[in-house]
Amino acid sequence: VVWPENAVSFLLAPNPRFGRAAADILGSGGPGLLLGGPRYVADGDGHVRFFNSAYLLAANGEPVMVYDKRHLVPFAEYAPLPRVPWLGWRFDAPGDYTPGVVPTIFPDPAPFGVLICFEAIYPELARDLVRQGARFLLNLSNDAWFGTSAGLEQHLAMTVFRAVETRRALARATNTGVTALVAPSGRIQARFPTGVRGAWVVQVPLRDGLSFYVRVGDLFAWFTTLGALVALAAAGRPR
Fold first, then answer.
1. What is the spatial distance between Cα 184 and Cα 186, in angstroms, rounded to a whole number?
2. Which of 5, 77, 119, 165 is catalytic?
3. pTM for the structure as a whole
4. What phi, psi does 143 have (nearest 5°)?
5. Which of 62, 77, 117, 165 is catalytic?
6. Domains in the chain, ordered, with CATH?
């Protein structure tokens, strides 16, 4: 069972009340629940760090694994330039999150990786997950930022490229955005209406093996850029 980014706005651990509610939803021996929510770590010196995370809950409602979002949204989840003394400027981001540092592979029901919200626009993140063994990808997103604008479709379109590059199916779970299943070929295999409450069941195809892009990354793009520069330089030389 997959819920979107920011599915809950409170801390899940420790939160036995929510754990019991989740267990009631999932049922004994049922599937796990993957959902987005905040997480904190107390460093022991009075300092607390917050993360935008994806939790995997077991059927009994207990958190068993977590992934912390690595690419945060500037000016929304963190402040790129929090203080510029000579300008007398201080900016505090609403979220003030700490970025995660490692890709996480969730093992069941088959190895998969998670991209939270606009992480899906970064090819290298999806590539990392597949190189670590992901057989499919999940994108949890809170697209309420976009309202009903074209941003909803644009966000979906970007995730199509991640599926094609990695040759992995990519399933999206969003709150107000486009919840969809993208096949490894890039074809949108299933798509659900926006702004409508509901739950849908899809079969996610599993893939093994590494695509050309996963193997070499952006090396091909660098070579073509170099080739274009050489061609331009040659064309500009006097004959």
1. 5
2. 5
3. 0.86
4. -100, 15
5. 117
6. 1-72 (no CATH), 103-239 (3.60.110.10)
